[in-house]
Amino acid sequence: MEAAESRRPVPHRPRNPAPRHRAGEPTCGACVIHARSCMLAAMLLRILSLLAVLSSLLQADNAALDAWLKRQATVKTLETEFVQERKLPSLKQPVSTPGKLSFANPGRVRWQLGEPVATLVLSDGTTLTLIDQKAKTARRIPADSPQAARFSMLTGDGFQNPENFHTMFEVVAHRVASGIHQYTLKPKDHRMRSQVPWIFLDIDPAKNELRAMELELKDKSRIRTVFQNPRINTKLPPALFEADLTGLTVNDGR
Question: Is 92 helix (H, G, I), strand (E, B) or coil?
Fold first, then answer.
């Protein structure tokens, strides 16, 4: 009897028994979830901090642009020579044409291209008249129409102050080259964007002046206007902005 009892198997006991789970203590799964939540929270905090830094940098980048826009409120008249470069996808070299811009508040504009003048654009703030001197034709369109944007944009409401500007345009890129701040803009109004999808500004912060403006049109061609010798708030005669349509074929269109 004693021998039989001695042959009974001894129950196996693990060397390192797992601790029993006590009520109120987190399970291993809960610990993992908690750790992941902490990691996600830390990552989100870093992302928010990075976005805050990027936002402050963007505001700082716009400083030269906003300073130039604030100056526009003091500009009553403007006269400047320019060279306009027309870049076409079908041409290897751009076509350059000299010209002159005159502007007087409110909304009076005179663009003349060529020497002697080949194309003349006049606006009284309501109607914009495009005159082709060689073809002896004139076309009149509303000054606020998308078709007039390439001529009236610079002297329109959008460039009168920072508030109007940021309402009408979105700054999508900025860089500095040789001290000149270059901004890439996108019109917010879809009608204007259908005619002029992209706008590029070169601003000299040292002189607080616009050096150049480039427009990309819907046909992918580009018109770059480089300004020279600007004269601000000089007296301009009203007749400078009046169109002489004598001997021209006039077309009123939109």
Answer: coil
**Number of structural domains the chain divides into:** 1
Its pTM stands at: 0.72
**In CATH, what number is assigned to the domain containing residue 125?**
2.50.20.10
195 is in which domain, residue-wise?
A: 75-252
Q: From residue 79, how far is each of 32, 75, 198, 225, 242 by CA, in Å?
A: 70, 11, 25, 14, 16
Q: Kindly state whether residue 60 falls inside one of the protein's structural domains.
A: no
Residues 217-226, mean pLDDT to the nearest whole number = 93
Chain mean pLDDT for the chain: 84
Distance CA 233, CA 188 (A): 30
